[in-house]
């Protein structure tokens, strides 16, 4: 109540096991809060590798005191759901793909009460995070790795395949859907893109950072990891784009560009 100067006691927001949050809350004109979540699911006795993850939206009508769950239909493999509102009131959601194929797209025309089945966009995804925002112009700006499994020369067993927790009782999960999560696709380049049609097409794309994006290891202490990942993007009052992302798992890198700069060099 004092613009963040002081804070109340910490309390559990969501207590369902396997619930993860990556993207921010969207506050609607009707006062509802929309919080996208994803559920990391696994069968008892099996290791988690991401084969069975799904997305949902938590909705609160009382400023976060209580929440109800709206599952995104047929969202297997779609995680890190990022919601943004278009000027016509339609809600657009973009997803990271566990399959490392494409960024996926869904929309809601009823304030998040229901969502369309996620469909692949023209943009690649490497099973790494993304973020999108609506600009004052009505366009969408997205920051992501322009990479997919198709560009990978190697593949990891999982994100945590280097960690030995001493528990050898858990077995490798069975592949039920016919697809398994792809880990190890390069996390580079870091790219910003702009869409003028609500996320259907992305004619303007420009790289912010380039490199080999090596992420077959999480080892940043010995500087073996060279990924750009987990980007965030916001438009400032002057219309420019403020972007931050993980740099080699060693630091947070900040980049400040204009939408015009992005459009100067179409991919």
UniProtKB/TrEMBL annotation:
* Species of provenance: Klebsiella michiganensis
Tell me the ranges covered by the Sialidase domain, including all copies.
1-243
What is the protein name for this chain?
Glycosyl hydrolase
Q: Which InterPro entries match?
A: Sialidase (IPR011040), Sialidase_sf (IPR036278)
Top-rank taxon of the source lineage equals Bacteria
Keyword terms of this UniProt record: Hydrolase
Recorded GO molecular functions are: hydrolase activity
The record, for Gene3D superfamilies, names: 2.120.10.10
């Amino acid at each position: 109540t004092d613009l963040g100067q002081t804070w109340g006691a910490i309390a559990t927001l969501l207590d369902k096991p396997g619930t993860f949050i990556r993207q921010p809350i969207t506050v609607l004109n009707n006062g509802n809060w929309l919080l996208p979540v994803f559920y990391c699911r696994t069968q008892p006795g099996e290791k988690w590798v991401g084969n069975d993850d799904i997305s949902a939206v938590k909705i609160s009508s009382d400023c976060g005191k209580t929440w109800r769950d709206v599952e995104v239909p047929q969202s297997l493999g779609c995680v890190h759901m990022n919601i943004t509102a278009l000027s016509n009131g339609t809600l657009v959601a973009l997803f990271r793909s566990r399959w490392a194929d494409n960024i996926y797209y869904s929309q809601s025309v009823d304030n998040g009460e229901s969502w369309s089945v996620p469909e692949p966009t023209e943009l690649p995804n490497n099973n790494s995070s993304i973020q999108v925002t609506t600009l004052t112009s009505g366009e969408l700006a997205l920051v992501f790795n322009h990479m997919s499994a198709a560009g990978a020369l190697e593949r990891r067993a999982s994100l945590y395949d280097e960690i030995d927790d001493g528990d050898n009782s858990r077995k490798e999960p069975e592949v039920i859907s016919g697809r398994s999560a792809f880990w190890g696709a390069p996390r580079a380049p870091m790219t910003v893109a702009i869409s003028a049609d609500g996320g259907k097409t992305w004619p303007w794309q420009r790289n912010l950072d380039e490199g080999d994006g090596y992420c077959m290891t999480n080892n940043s202490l010995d500087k073996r990891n060279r990924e750009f990942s987990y980007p965030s993007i916001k438009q400032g009052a002057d219309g420019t784009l403020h972007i931050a992302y993980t740099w080699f798992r060693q630091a947070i890198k900040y980049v400040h560009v204009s939408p015009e700069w992005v459009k100067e060099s179409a991919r």
